Known about the structure:
Layout: E1 3-7, H1 16-29, E2 34-37, H2 45-55, E3 60-63, E4 66-67, H3 73-86, E5 91-96, H4 100-107, H5 114-131, E6 135-137, E7 142-144, E8 160-162, H6 167-176, E9 179-180, H7 187-204, E10 211-220, H8 224-235, H9 242-250, E11 261-263, H10 265-278, E12 282-286, H11 293-304
Parallel strand pairs: 1-2, 1-12, 2-3, 3-5, 4-5, 5-8, 8-9, 9-10, 10-11, 10-12
Antiparallel strand pairs: 6-7
Amino acid sequence: xTIIGAALSTPEFGNAVDHGVDSARAAKESGLxxxxxxxxxxxxxxxxxxIIGREVDDITVGTSAVPIFGRHPLIVxxxxxxxxxxxxxxxxxxxxxxxxxLTEKAFGVEFRRPAKRLADFLTITRxxxxxxxxxxxxxxxxxxxxxxxxxxxVDSPPPVLVAALGPRVLEVAGRFADGILPFLAGPxxxxxxxxxxxxxxxxxxxRPPPRVVALVPALVTDDPDAGRAALAAATSFYEQIPxxxxxxxxxxxxxxxxxxxxxxxxxxxxxxxxxLAAGATEIVLTQTDSLGPxxxxxxxxxxxxxxx
Length: 308
């Protein structure tokens, strides 16, 4: 069975936590298997995932993704374990490097040696989650647990995934993570570059093939022009980030919106099947709220058919 999920939006008005819970219930009713939350500066994605998973059963909840700069893995692993306990084992722990411009401005830290920092972060994280302790001194991050880090109620550690696109980060993810969360990476670049690099690193490390959770902008609508205009507005931010610029170009596109799936239910499902044929193991629908709640629900329901 193909796992189909959706990234949830955040409202401008009302209570964001209540909205997240209501949206997750709607996603479940639409037939989706999981929901994902991006990290922002106004809410904590891990905390919100734990609350949603506590309120809505039989659906996985994940972060896509929490940037590692400005955060220490010993602290964030504790947050992840708390969400795993709150959801009774349905939490997906997604991490990211983040964008250099945002990181340096927000946290006042230098965005340096990101692949090495990620390797240190994941090494510490896996030790905390899998052994209940850590004693590690890396080139970028060190951590020593003065007391045990095992949390009562966590029967198994949450899977750790990375929003990886570039070769060096993919190699790190292949060695240390359970999967990746590629966004704006079309089927062509997934099949020919991203997945081979990831899988090769996993094999070299003696690890099983990682999951490939492809994040795909999608809208089921009978007004494709309006849909493309909405997706263009929703995704233009990513065109300013070098890692996304590179993968968009490698996917054969000039703009992020060109990688969006817009059209009838059959057309969107056909596009999603291309990602699965390219090697994606799961799909996460993104920007589905761009034309309002009715279009979002139609998009969720159309894609959920692939998971049945």
